[in-house]
UniProtKB/TrEMBL annotation:
Protein name: 6-carboxy-5,6,7,8-tetrahydropterin synthase
Molecular function terms from GO: 6-carboxytetrahydropterin synthase activity
EC number of this enzyme: 4.1.2.50
Origin species: Myxococcus xanthus (strain DK1622)
Pathway given in the UniProt record: Purine metabolism; 7-cyano-7-deazaguanine biosynthesis
Location of region: Disordered: 1-22
Length: 209
C-alpha cells in the first residue's frame, strides 16, 4: 500500500484554508492501514506544494481522503463564512444495471466500475481533534460498497420500485451512509461517476438554505 500525505494552502475572501491528505486503499481489501488513521496525522507532516505539483500528484494518486477546513475570520463581524470541517473518502465497486426509458424499453444489462466520493462535515472536532475516526467512516462506506459489489443493482430491493439510474444509486448510497454516522457528524453530499465513456456524473446532497 502506498501512503502519501500532502497539503496546500489557498486563501479566499476572509481566509478559507484548505488541507488535503491523500492515500490509496481498496474498499474491498479490508481495514485501512494504521498510517491512514486520523490520529497518526498532524500538521508537522503536511508540507506545502505548488498548484502544478498538486495537480500532478492528483493525477498520480487516486485520492481517497481529503480534509478541508474553512475558518471564519472572527475579527470581521460581517463575514458570511461559517467555520466547518470537511472529510471525504472515495471508494469503488463493480456492479451491473439497466435503465428503463420513458417508453418502457429497458437498455441491455451492462457493468460499470462505480466511483463514489462521500463528504462528511462537522462544526466542531471531537475529543481527539478529528471529525470522525477515519476507520469508522471507512467501515461505513465499505459496508455499502460490499452490498452492491458484483451484483445486478436492479435486483436490489431498493430498486424494485425506482429506476436504476445513476441518480438513484447515488441517493441510495447517501441514505445508507447517513444512517450509519454518529451524532455530530453530518453527511454533506455523495458524488458518483461511472466508467464507460463520457457518462454524466451524479451528486446527491442535502438542500442548502
Amino acid at each position: 500500500m502506498h501512503i502519501f500525505v500532502k497539503a496546500g494552502a489557498q486563501r479566499k475572501r476572509t481566509g478559507q484554508a484548505r488541507r488535503r491528505r491523500v492515500g490509496t486503499w481498496s474498499p474491498l481489501a479490508g481495514p485501512c492501514s494504521e498510517e491512514l488513521r486520523g490520529d497518526s496525522l498532524d500538521s508537522s507532516c503536511l508540507l506545502p506544494y505548488s498548484a502544478g505539483r498538486r495537480s500532478r500528484l492528483r493525477r498520480r494518486y487516486h485520492g481517497v481522503c481529503s480534509l478541508r477546513a474553512a475558518h471564519q475570520d472572527l475579527t470581521t463581524t460581517t463575514s458570511k463564512w461559517t467555520a466547518m470541517h470537511y472529510l471525504s473518502l472515495t471508494a469503488e465497486f463493480k456492479a451491473s444495471h439497466a435503465v428503463t426509458f420513458p417508453d418502457g424499453q429497458r437498455e441491455p444489462l451492462h457493468t460499470h466500475d462505480w466511483w463514489v466520493r462521500v463528504w462528511v462535515k462537522a462544526r466542531a472536532l471531537n475529543h481527539w481533534d478529528v471529525i470522525i475516526d477515519f476507520k469508522d467512516l471507512q467501515d461505513i462506506i465499505v459496508r455499502v460498497c460490499r452490498e452492491l459489489h458484483d451484483t445486478n443493482i436492479n435486483e436490489h430491493p431498493y430498486f424494485k420500485t425506482v429506476n436504476c439510474t445513476a441518480e438513484r444509486v447515488t441517493e441510495y448510497v447517501f441514505k445508507q451512509v447517513e444512517s450509519g454516522l454518529p451524532e455530530g457528524v453530518t453527511l454533506d453530499r455523495v458524488h458518483l461517476r461511472r466508467t464507460g465513456g463520457e457518462l454524466p456524473e451524479a451528486e446527491y446532497a442535502h438542500a442548502r438554505d
